Predict the 3D structure of the following.
Amino acid sequence: MESVVLYPSPGMGHLISMVELGKLILNHHPSFSITILIVTPPYNTGSTAPYLSRVSSTFPSISFLHLPTISLPLDSFHSPHLETLVFEFLRLNNPNLHQALLSISDNSTVRALIVDFFCTAALPVAAQLNIPSYYFFTSGAACLASFLYFPFIHNQTTKSFKDLNIHLHIPGIPPFLASDMPKPMLDREDKAYEFFLDMSVHLPRSAGIIINTFEALEPRAVKAISDGLCVVDGLTPPIFCIGPLIAADGRSSGGCGGGVPECLTWLDSQPKRSVLFLCFGSLGLFSEEQLKEIAIGLEGSGKRFLWVVRSPPSGDPMRRFLAPVDPDLNSLLPDGFLDRTRERGLVVNTWAPQVAVLNHDSVGGFVTHCGWNSVLEAVCAGVPMAAWPLYAEQRLNRVVMVKEMKLALSMEESEEGFVTATEIEKRVRELMESEEGNSLRLRVMAMKEAAEAAMSHGGSSLTALTELVKSWRLG
């Protein structure tokens, strides 16, 4: 039997994309056996158990192999970035990975190990066992272009990105401020920077890079990478754009007990394309002050809204990587806000079924943190966006969404990252009622059709999948 092993990093967004990749492979090439390695980290990644159990019951041909739990003292990490913890945690998992690959190899021929970019430390383990390694890049081609070009920029300067007051010119991407590089890479002295540099050096050394995007969405970035313009001092491996991969059934049960979530019932009673949806990912947290500002802006806009609210981040450094408690909406939001907006707004505690919400006829706009899964979900639903990046590579995604794809408006923030109620009200109105908002809507609807074409028979993404599988068989 031929098998392919998938090794996602533990974040919810990364896990979902990797599972969807497994489903895609099996749907079109069912002779493969798929095993997905699951690691349990000592920090908050959102609740993955309900999602995994649903995948197991609906897709029994995907096997999940849980690696043994390893301990990691959270208080020993001085980097403020969760990403440092992820890289280190996955590096420490190498002995467990080695054992798992040996065990799977006992019963089948492992044709490929497909790793998340956080799992870069896995490459030598696979090489030792003569298993070809492929990266699965869960963000877009523009972000991949910036990572591939990163070692070249690193060698051109001794300054940190945060201190480089210049625009970076990376092949295939609009020029953007150095400070818009992914947050963990801004400080050259931070351990996270070192991990990302190492990952960027290793990307071209893989057997290939699979990207969760499609050519029509990012044609310039895809061409720049394919033409070898982003790897300055070496060869570029084959790239395979096989997206958009999104979870059609949403992310988690969210405690709905299998019934229809209240928010979907509420949307049923709203006019077509009238509701603005605000949701900021499993790790997107705002201060109490910012939450109040969002509320004031929404109230002032007069627009209908569905808003997912999470508790502010904990001030306790020992809890910074742990899950926040459920929010107390009455104390977090302005006095009387919930009563005054009851007729046109719904505030939801912590979670909503994002894919189902975006695909509801009543939803006409989406305020997003620019996480790549969320961007793809909005594109596939044909919903225009207002871009409000919070962490990871999201500022770079915003540049591409606004300037290159022209599928989003930009929320403008202060240097400290604060967005005023005035700005929120202005952008909400612009997105939901202006000419510009309408032209965004037309463009995103056209891109929705392009996404469907890419994933249909003979489309660019399924053609790329065929090429990928051919590369495994040729070995």
Summary: The longest helix spans residues 435-454.
